[in-house]
Structure of ABC transporter ATP-binding protein:
Amino acid sequence: MKKFINKKFFALSILLSCLSGLELPFGTWSYSEIFSLITEKNIPNTIRMVAVITIAQILLVIIKYLNTRILNRNIACFNQNVREFLMKSNFIEISENNVSKQISFLSNDLNLIEENYLKQLFQLISMIVTIVGTSIVAVGNSFLLTLVFISFAIFSSIIPKFFSKKTAQQSNNWSTSTGTYITFMSDFLKNIRTVLNYNALDTFIKKGQKIITQSTENKRLRDNTIAKSNFWVNIFVYSFDFLPIGIGIIMVIKGMLTLASFVAVQYSSTWIINSFYSINSCRNQMSSAKPMIDKLLSFKPEEFDKNIPNSNLNTLTLNNISFGYKPGELVLDKINLKIKRGDKLLLTGKSGQGKSTLLNLLTGQLKPTKGNVLVNGMTNQNYTFSEVQQTSQIFNDTLLFNLTLGKKLKLSNFLCK
């Protein structure tokens, strides 16, 4: 993940997230300070403290705004770096049947990584600072009562661990089923005329209903698992919420604690408990994004030669070529072939017998498991090939771009001599 992150903005976001995390500790302190000011009955001191608290609150609002801006910049940098990396990685080495699944990864999975991991990561940092800062305020007023409150809150952080593995698995299932749905809809819409002409609409609707049901069910199961984890956290936290409050009240009655100190501890502890709850929610969200992150990290950069020569083809030779998509499975076995300049060959065979695979080996799009492909006695990686495919390959761009593919070519290149 490090290679997709802008280090400068990432570090700045961490700093601002930490400062934003001080908002609640400061609010806790200022809230308890109100009771101290009432007890002191010192008007000049009250005016000074109100002014200080107001200015500090404005600064915290500014920090929170800047934190949001920098977080958005981090998301934008991550998004751009990932998308640029994917265009240069083995992400693009896919068959046409998998295009929709890859598009699903770009549109859905990346969004989940941004929303459920990156944003939650900075939220987690802010919540940790909130807990530490608020705990300092609470401990400064009463260590014993704070210990009682924290003891009840800390156990809630254990509960999500029981659900994290299941959440990650269900997120992976949802991502897979969503990719299947997008693939199906892409094929369905692309070939709708054929479907209607052969009166097969009912069949496709029934098939689509099954795929849609699977996708929505997987999402429901994932969301339910997250909700169940949060439910048990809430049950545990709020079932024991008033027990430490009762202990605090007794301490005030016995003169062991001032009212202002009790308010500070109680108010602090409430936010500490809520912060623990927020941390648990962050961890659940981050767990749901883990399968997508693993998938992103599985892509490897590819080296593309930008200076491949366009040489005349005199001979193209296949020496003892073997190829298989899976270990132990051969599509082509010990193929030998020699093509001279000017030769015209017809390659025939049944579907799945390896015609397209052989052509992809010739053009260098696939690398043989065994043997080698030579052009003019050299590896075919040193040459470029042109092919006219069965289906039209038209880019959603200008006519000039479709003719040149973005290369700067002189008009004379298109004129007959």
